[in-house]
Description:
Elements: H1 2-47, H2 55-65, H3 72-92, H4 96-116, H5 118-121, E1 122-123, E2 129-130, H6 132-138, H7 140-151
Antiparallel strand pairs: 1-2
Helix pairs in contact: 1-3, 1-7, 2-3, 2-4, 3-4, 4-7
Amino acid sequence: MASHLAQVVRTGRRGAAEFSRGYRRVAPGVLRASVGVVYLWFGVLKFLPGASPAEDLATRCMSLLTFDLVPPGVSRPLLALMEVAIGAGLVTGLLLRVVLAVFFVHMAGVFATLVLLPDDVWVHGVPPVPTLEGQYILKNVVLIAACLTVATRREDRPAPDAAPEAAPAFGHLTDAGPLVEHRSLTS
């Protein structure tokens, strides 16, 4: 009985190690596609008036950022189009450098809301507490971290600790390379 249990544990550890090695190879693509799906979903919601909980806040912030040159009736579909384009680019990997640049510009606008519309995103006090809308904005830190990982990893080569013969998933859909090139200290 004890030897059977030991065998099961060894098999489980080998399986977990194999899964881990395999997942490391595809992790940047999974992150990229996951953020892309979220962007597609939220972008499509902005095409439907009243469907996005962030719609009013986003359009008011865009009006402030553009000094009221872009009215809410125009900014909502523009934001929707931008988010859908970012999402489609992340899911497919096409024009990835451009898509990531637009993503980071979009995130700058999103986080500007925390400063430009403080009464909507913070309950003032010590410490300041984010409102539900503020929490909706702050969760984007995770999307930024995911896209930084995508931007700094080449998907057309395996991770440094991956098996050399392994081909990463999603790599065939990316553009020419990373935004930031990795260099070894020994080379």
